[in-house]
Amino acid sequence: MIYLDNAATTSIDPSTLDLIQESLKKDWANPSATYQEGQHVAEKLRQAREKLAKILAVDPHEIIFTSGATEGTNAVFYQVAKQYKSGHVITSNVEHSCVRANAERLASLGFEVTYLPVNEEGIITSEQVQAALREDTRLVSLMTVNNETGVIFPIREIGEILAEHPCYFHTDAVQSVSTVDWDFEGWHVDFATFSAHKFRAPKGVGILYVKDPARFSSLLVGGGQESGHRAGTENVPYIVGMAHSLEITRAHLKDHRENYQALTDYLLEKMDEQGIRYRVNGSRSAHSPHILNLYLPGKEASQWLILADLAGIMISAGSACSAGSLKPSPVLTAMFGEGDERLLSSVRISFGLETSREDLDHLIDVFKKGQRS
Ligand SMILES: Cc1ncc(COP(=O)(O)O)c(C=O)c1O
Fold it and tell me: If you measure from the C-alpha of residue 71 to the centroid of ligand 1, how many angstroms do you get, rounded to a whole number?
C-alpha cells in the first residue's frame, strides 16, 4: 500500500512506539499519586513537558496536555465565551471544522463573527485582519497551515497587528509541525493547538499552548490535573511518545521541507512530461510542501479516489464525503466560488517521511490512465 494522506494522520514512528510500549509497562501508576511509583510517573510527565516546552520555545507551565487539537480549540473558544459573554470574533472561511464549529457556536451565543475571505490562492492578508479588527474583538483564530491546500497564513504579520490589542490570538498549528519555523512569542500568539497523530505519535493526545495560564479556565472540570487547567488523569505513555516524536520531527525541519519540495517538483515535472492535465490549488509560495492539492479534470474526485484505492494508493479529496454524496470542500469553495469545476475534481496528496518517488510514479500512472479512460 502507498500512503499519501499524511495530512489526515501519520503512522507512528517505530522509536516512538518502542518508547510508548516500554512506558505502558513501566509507567502505569497515577501521576497524581503521592507514593514513589506515582511520583516516578509524575517525573516522566514533568520531563516530557519540559522537552516539549523547549521545542516550542515556551515555558513548561504554558503547556497543557489535551486529547488533541479539537479539544484544545474547544478550550480556547470556551475561554472566550466564559470571559466575555459577548463581543466580536475574527476567523477565516477556510479553517478546520473544529474552529468553524466553535465560531458558529459563539455566534449562536450572541458573539458576532467575521469570516475573512481568502483569495483564489487561499490566502488572507494581515491588512484584512487590521480592517476587521474592532474595539470589542475578543478573539482572532487563524490557522498556521491549511490542511487541504498547505497554504501558510502570515501569522507573524497578523500577530504584530494584534500585539497592541487586548484580544486573544489563537493559531491552529496542527499542520505546521513538520515544515514551519515557529516563534510563538514573536508571533504574539496566546494559544496554539496541536495533535500528536499528525507528527508520528498516537491519536488522542495533543498540546494546548496557553501564553497566560493564570487567567485560563479549564474546559474540562474534575480533578486538579494540569495545574487545574485540564481535568482528567494524564496519558503519560502517550505524552512521552508525543514529546519524542516532536523532538525527532523538529530536529529535521529543513530536511523535511527540502524533501517534500523535491517530491512535489518531481511529481509535477513527471505529470507535465506525461501530458497529464492539472492545476495546483493554492499559493505555491506561501505554502507548506507536505500538502499538494491538485485539480485533475476528466474525473470527479470520488472517481480519482477509487482509481487510486484500486491501485493501492491512499489519497483524499479536496471534498468531504458525507453519507455517500460528495459535498464540495468549504476550503476550495471559499477560494474559487460555488459552481467552479475545480470543486468537484480536486484531490489532496500529502507526503510523509516514508514517501518515495516510486510511490509517486504509481500515482502518476493512475492519473494518466484515468484521464485517458
Ligand atoms: C488543521 C487541523 N486542525 C485541527 C484538526 C483536528 O485534529 P484532531 O482531530 O486530532 O483533534 C486537524 C485534523 O485533521 C487539522 O488538520
Answer: 10
Residue nearest to atom 7 of ligand 1 (CA): 69
The reply to whether ligand 1 has any atom less than 6 angstroms from the CB of 70 is: yes
For residues 24 and 66, membership in a common domain is answered with yes
Distance 170 CA to ligand 1 centre (A): 14
- Any alpha helices (H) in the chain, and if so which ranges? 14-26, 36-56, 69-84, 97-108, 126-132, 155-162, 236-250, 253-273, 301-310, 330-336, 357-372
Ligand 1 within 6 A of CB of 147: yes
Same domain, 311 and 206: no
Coil, strand, or helix at residue 358?
helix
- CATH code of the domain covering residue 148: 3.40.640.10
Placement of cell 472517481 in the chain = 303
Per cent of the chain over pLDDT 90 is 96
CA of 135 to the centre of ligand 1 (A): 30
For residues 71 and 85, is the Cβ–Cβ distance under 8 A?
no
Active site residue 167: no
- pLDDT tens digits along 169-215: 999 999 999 999 999 999 999 999 999 999 999 999 999 999 989 98
Contact between 95 and 84 under an 8 Å Cβ cutoff? The reply is no
277 and 143 share one domain: no
User: All 3 cell numbers of residue 259?
Assistant: 524533501
Between CA 27 and CA 241 the distance in angstroms is 12
Q: Cα torsion for 208, 96, 249, 47, to the nearest 10°?
A: 10
